[in-house]
Structure formats: structure tokens, C-alpha cells
Amino acid sequence: MTGAQSVVRSLEELDVDTVFGIPGGAVLPVYDPLFDSKKVRHVLVRHEQGAGHAATGYAQASGRVGVCMATSGPGATNLVTPLADAQMDSVPIVAITGQVPSSLVGTDAFQEADISGITMPVTKHNFLVKDAAEIPRTLAEAFYLAASGRPGAVLVDITKDALQAQTTFSWPPEMRLPGYRPVTKPHGKQVREAARMILEAKQPVLYVGGGVIKSDASPELLELAELTGIPVVTTLMARGAFPDSHTLNMGMPGMHGTVGAVAALQKSDLLITLGARFDDRVTGQLDSFAPDAKVIHADIDPAEIGKNRHADVPIVGDAREVIVELIETLKADPQSGAAPLLNLTEWWAYLSGIRENYPLGWKTPSDGSVSPEYVIETLGRLAGPEAIYCAGVGQHQMWAAQFIKYENPRTWLNSGGLGTMGYSVPAAMGAKMGAPDKEVWAVDGDGCFQMTNQELATCAIEGVPIKVALINNGNLGMVRQWQTLFYEQRYSNTDLGTHTLRIPDFVKLAEALGCVGIRVEKESEVEDAIRQAQAITDRPVVIDFIVGKDAQVWPMVASGTSNDEIMFARGIRPLFDDDESVSEPAVIHEAMEREQATSEKGDDE
């Protein structure tokens, strides 16, 4: 068979059922045999970036490797952003790109780009294949690399002459990955030392990252938390790893996290860090983060351990296997009795006071505009914890992380590490194809939405009925918030015109793309619009929620500052109880004392 036929056969043998891509000259040989495949469905996207994010959404929702395909040159370079995005968030995807014939490589031929060189810093690994005989082995290695160890993005670039050449297909191939031996089983001595530190701790916290979801360790995490009674914080990438409804859950830490989660980390004497990487959005100013805490750091990637914060007990291994062995070791301790193992009464008295006195909340706009927090809270209540929510990047992303209750893993998808605008719609498309029985909502902003909304046409044609909750505040909301707080309200280039000019009209745009379009301008219309969208299952739906332009995300730890300097909106002070019998943490103080905090209509804070 040809090398191109070998590509398709390899994908079939790897149990790939969906590929997102766009054909072009260099990769066209693959599209001919793909036309005849009974196992692999190709989804013709409208932009290669959409293909990459769709592959990511597919992988995040299904737990399988996502696959995208593009031609050489601009087709391949359009995949750079989604590859970097997937790599940052440890999502297993494989990108297959066509390349100019090997005789033209390096000559600046038409549509030539050194995509291997370009993507080397933003992929886990990549390959340039010039020999058709190498195609099955290379693809098998690519999928293994993407899914094993710390998952990530892998690119396979194949020259056109290799795709057209005759070859002999054989499966399974012998993989050759010398030196690649990801460690999954933790070292017993390290686990025992971690267990000892846990039993001695007075103010421990389970600091849980996205690695727990990647390793499907949610049941084991629940068992560990209930065995010990230790409070749990779940990072932005770990929302759903531990049920929000559970009494041990303190919420999301970080820049826009709950006060309880931030306080728990800051006041902790032991951080049991599972599949998290001490990202700057969690730690704030690193040298003031959790100053009195010792650190147990378990991660499958040894490069992450000690990278940002010294680990007193480093544990290299898969999060699930680490947690299982920790549970076994703790249960074997001669002092262990009935759960919980630890006496954390004083610690929980402190944390419970913080949680009760500083809940998340919002102030209803006095100008009658719709509150975005209300929209998102209502969406979460109506769609429920079994739905999948894919967020873009910005204010709506933070509100969706804060006000939707997540009970299950793989129900919250977002671009956490790279913060990629335009992620939501194509990721929701991929998620719906990876989990077709789930209700899938893209929670997007009017800025993000205009980057990749063309993929709604793909959804309409392919029969992928996602639903879009468009939080339309007329501007680049998070950038505007920073301009309000730190740039003296000089709103440089953040007004998108979607309010003042209604350009574009999102309802008409949705209809033009084959979707149902609904506009909501009153709070009383929110619930009915969501229920109407839920009832439509034969095509995508876009709800254009017109919300106030000055809503802001609170609490907030400004970039580069300490978590001890968490900021609040003055307008939601009534939510807080000033009962002095509860010890207030150092993390709390009022921000925005300047009169500019009451800009324009006087209620934007």
C-alpha cells in the first residue's frame, strides 16, 4: 500500500474514531484513502486552530488521544497555538501534518515550513518522517508518547513523497523509544515519609491539580480525604476532581479563588500536592506563598518537582498510584483507627469560619442589566453536574469556575496554562463528539467567541448540537477589569462594539451559521432561554446574554502580589459577617479604597 494508506490503517489500528482537520496539497494523499475508511470519521473544520482545540476537547472529555490533521506551511502553523495549549495543560493529542517532498525540504518551497522546529518548544515530542516504512512505528510511538507519563502534544510531520511511496504495512510495529521510561509507581520510602508527615500535621491541605483527573484518581482522592479529614483545594484544572458539594472541599485557590482555599494554603503547615505544579496563578508571589508549610509533592513529571517550590518529600509517580499507596500506608499505621485519622478540630474551626464569613457572591447591577454571575449560576443549576462545560478565557471563565458546581471529573474543560482565547467553541465540539451522550455547553465571551465561532458551521453540518452561553459584556472584560484597577480607567482598545453598535449581531450570526440564536436582555428571561436551548437537540444553539460592561471578578489576587493581599469588591461587603469571634486571616483586606472604584455609574465594583 502507499504511505498514505499506511497512515489511515495505523489510525484504525490505534482505535481512532475521529480526526479533525482540513486538506491541502501536502497532506492530500492521506485524504484519498481516508475517504474509504469505515472506522475513522473525519470532521472538516473551518480553521486548523479549530481542529487542534477540537482534538483537545475530545481528549479532555473522553480521556482518549485527540487527533487533528493539517497540510504543510500555513496549515501546520495554524496548529501551533492548540499544540502549545494542549502541552501546557497536559492533554494527549497527536497532530499529523503533511510536508513538502523530501527533495524540497530546506529550499523554501511553496507552503514549506519547518513545523518540527517551530513546534519543538511547545510539544512533548515531534517527528519528521521521510520514509514510508517508518509511518506505522512513528504513529504508534506518537500515540504512546502522547498518552503515557505526563500526557502532552505530539506532532508527526510526513513528507509528501513518503505518503505517495509504496510500502509494506505491518502491525503492531516495534517501538523504539530508548530513554523514555515514565515512572508511574512511587518509591515506597517516599510514600512512608509522606504518611508520617501527614499524621504529624496540624494544618494540612490536599492541594489537588489536574494530574488527578488525568490519572482518573478521583475515587481514590475521595477515599484519602475522608480517611484523613484533610481539607481539599482543587485548582482551575482540577475542578470536578473532588465534589464541590463535599464538606471537605474548600474550593478553588489562586488569583480568583475562594477566600477559604487561599487562606487554607497560606496558613497550612503541610501541603500534600497531588498532580499540581505550583503555578503562579495559584501561588501569587512565590516567596510569600504558604510560608510555614512543608511540602509533599507528587507528580508524574520529575521536572515539575522542585521547579517552583522546594519539596520536602518528592514523589515521582502516577497520582492514582501515589494516592493508593498513601491510603494503604496510612491504614497500616499502628495508631490508625476509625476515620478520620487526624484530629483537625482547631484547623477546621478556623477554615469553617472563613468559608462561612467569606462566601463567593455578587452584587446585582443597579442599572437593571443582567448579572453574568447570575447567568452562569443558573446555567449550572439547570444543566446540572452531569453536563460538560467548556469555557473560553477571561472573566466568563473565572465565573464559570466559581459559580457552577462541579461534582464529576472531565466535566470542566478550559485553557488553563496558555489562556487561549477562542478555545471554547471548538473544544465543546470535540467534547460533544468524545462524549455524545452528554449535554455540552460552551461558556464564552464576546471577545473569545469572535475568534473561532466559525466552527459552529462545522457543528451544524456535522450534527453536533452544542450549546453556547455567550456572556456579552461588549468588551474584552478581563482586560477592562485590569484597566479599571491598575490603569486609571484608561480603556484603551477594549470596547468591541458588540453593545454600542451591535456589530456583529450574534443572533443573526448564529442563524447564518446554521444555529438557533436567542437573545436575553432581562434577568427574568435567563431561565426560559436556557430551558429553550436544552430542548433543542438537532442543531447548535447560541444564547446571547447581554450583561453589564462593568461586572468584575472577585476575589482577586493581583498578578505578582502575595496571596496575603487578596482584594475584594466593596459592593459585596454585605455578604460578609463581621463577627469578631471568628479569627480573620491575614489574607483579607479591603481593596479599592480610591474613589475611582465607583467609576461611571457608581456600581461597577
Radius of gyration over C-alpha positions, nearest whole angstrom: 25 Å
Span between termini: 65 Å
Order of the strands making up the biggest sheet: 2-1-3-4-6-5
Query: Would you count the extended β strands for me?
Result: 18
Largest sheet: 6 strands, parallel
Name the beta content range. Answer: 5-15%
Low-confidence stretches: 571-605
What overall geometry do the principal axes of the alpha carbons give?
Answer: globular
Portion of residues within helices: 25-40%
Mean pLDDT: 93
Number of helical elements = 23
Detailed description of the structure:
The chain is an alpha/beta fold and 605 residues long. 35% of the residues lie in helices and 14% in strands. It has 23 helices and 18 strands. The strands form three sheets. Strands 2-1-3-4-6-5 form a six-stranded parallel β-sheet, with helices on both faces. Strands 9-8-7-10-11-12 form a six-stranded parallel β-sheet, sandwiched between helices. Strand 10, helix 13 and strand 11 (294-299) form a beta-alpha-beta unit. The radius of gyration is 25 Å and the shape is globular.
Brief descriptors of the model:
single chain, 605 residues, alpha/beta
Quick rundown:
The protein is an alpha/beta fold. Helix content is 35%, strand content 14%.
Explain the layout of strands and helices.
Layout: H1 3-13, E1 18-21, H2 28-34, E2 41-44, H3 48-62, E3 66-70, H4 74-77, H5 80-88, E4 93-99, H6 115-119, E5 125-129, H7 135-147, E6 153-159, H8 160-164, H9 188-200, E7 204-208, H10 211-214, H11 218-228, E8 232-234, E9 249-251, H12 259-267, E10 270-274, H13 280-283, E11 294-299, E12 313-316, H14 319-332, H15 345-357, H16 372-383, E13 388-391, H17 395-403, E14 412-413, H18 424-434, E15 440-445, H19 446-452, H20 455-462, E16 467-472, H21 477-486, H22 506-512, E17 516-520, H23 526-535, E18 541-546
Parallel strand pairs: 1-2, 1-3, 3-4, 4-6, 5-6, 7-8, 7-10, 8-9, 10-11, 11-12, 13-14, 13-15, 15-16, 16-18, 17-18
